[in-house]
Amino acid sequence: MKFVDYYAALGLARNADLAQIKKAYRTLARQHHPDVSKAAGSEEKFKNAAAAYATLKNPEKRAAYDALGPLAEGTDMDAPPAAQRSAGAQPGARFDGMDFADFLNSLGQDDLFGARRTRAPGPRRGQDLQETVLLDLEQALHGSTLHLALQDDGQRRELEVSVPAGVRADQKLRLRGKGGKGQYGGEDGDFYLHIGFKPHPRFRVDRQDLYFDLALSPWEAMLGAEITIPTLESELVLTVPPGSSSGKKLRLRGCGMPQGPAAPAARGDMYALVRVEVPAQTTPEERALLEELTRISHFHPRSPLTGTAP
What is the model's pTM? Predict the structure, then answer.
């Protein structure tokens, strides 16, 4: 096994502090990264810098490395007894086929005198949890309080979540510290609530706007009408202008969904899409009137461009 001078690989003195080690590694990594430099030897320099940084930034690994003493680059060396035992070798055996970085990792398992290290478990952050809920449009408009049953490490618990007014579809709400419990003093994880909307029997949602179909009789579409329509909060009177054909879009300003929880009062619009319906059957009186209308009307719905003469 060949000794690698990690301080030389980073261009540092042996008493360099952690900030200097980090700075040197970042500089060399940017300079010699294979995606950046194609110069001869750059890849090897990049690998040596990465191995040096991985060792010297870790206080325990650095202490084990420093204990080897300053040696010349490429010096043949034997593993100390602790590393020999961890690798299953006999004392005095050479480690010529062993990578120097792997050798240093073996030192991290035992100290230089072969004493086994026992580490207390460090703080462990709790797991992040997530759930998807489907809200009624009314719940999204006014806000809602939900009671969710969660599974956390096999334990069932209930979580109360306040959904703010104006929440949007596909929005993700984050509740800090409401996820899995941390261990060994670690902080609790977070809880993420993914929002969706249930299909509404009347309205369709497009971002903050609402759409619905408005069925009109032929005479309402021709003459105009005052139609009472429901919204998510109350009823409004919609004025249908005369001559409203199927497909016409009538807007009710500010009757849509909020633009977001930060501005629940800022609302989108509601659109009525006109759909003219005709009766399946007519009475003799209705038919007589329609025939008279056909006789006196000058309206021609088909343009010559369609290939049919008016």
Answer: 0.54
